[in-house]
What does this fold into?
Amino acid sequence: MNNPVTDVLHTDELIKLALLEDISQEDVSTNAVMPEYKKGKVELIAKQKGIICGLSVFERTFKILDNKTQICFFAKDGDEVECGEILAEIIGDIRVLLSGERTALNYLQRMSGIATYTRSVAQLLQGSKTKLLDTRKTTPNMRIFEKYAVKVGGGNNHRYNLSDGVMLKDNHIGAAGGIKNAVKMAREYAPFVRKIEVEVENLDMVKEAVEAGADIIMLDNMTPEEMKIAVEYIAGRAQTECSGNVTRENIKNIIDCGVDFVSSGALTHSAPILDLSLKNLCPLED
It folds into this structure.
């Protein structure tokens, strides 16, 4: 799987900002008990079962603080890990191990939580034609990490940002004076290779979107019964997506509607973290 978070040109500045947030001047606690260099080792341990994700970001956090830090991983992104499992050994300057611990774990716990939650939702769609998508409802400055975690968990990425595709939502439609005009204007402005997606809220809007020639029609906050009728009416003239408060608890209601895609903001905004910890720090001889 292509891992965009290993592209340091895109991620190093974000990690540095996170480190700066946590170490604005100095790590007072660490400098008090460890004023000078001392080599040490600490273990990364899973405290609950789940899907691990973000190991490269975890590693990079320590490497930015000290490129001499060595990490031996016993798992890879996408692996299901068990409670109590040792996932890695980190060896280096004890001051770096202590100062980088929280930021590195914040990334790893968040990304692993998203991958774990996504896996549980994606499994509910197995055997159906419907593909699971994420949304732009991501934590500021965490999108590249969170969307990668969705892929590791078995989901698919919707557009990355506003430059990545045309999606005409209710306010765009209102600003343009209706679906027909909004689609026409988008066709004239956007490159011909770009698909145009239109968000609709009722069956009348579905008909307008079909007549306007939308490539993808998003059925937003419609009931399963309405979605079935909409999909039957669209009849393959556009791809279909449903959205609106989709969670693990209610996604089963959508499986039989026949939509091509289901997007869920909960994958990134509501996934709980996976509990992980750095334990058993001990000094080593050089």
Observations:
- The chain has a mean pLDDT of 95.
- The first strand starts at residue 39 and ends at 46.
- The longest helix spans residues 94-124.
- The chain has ten helices and twelve strands.
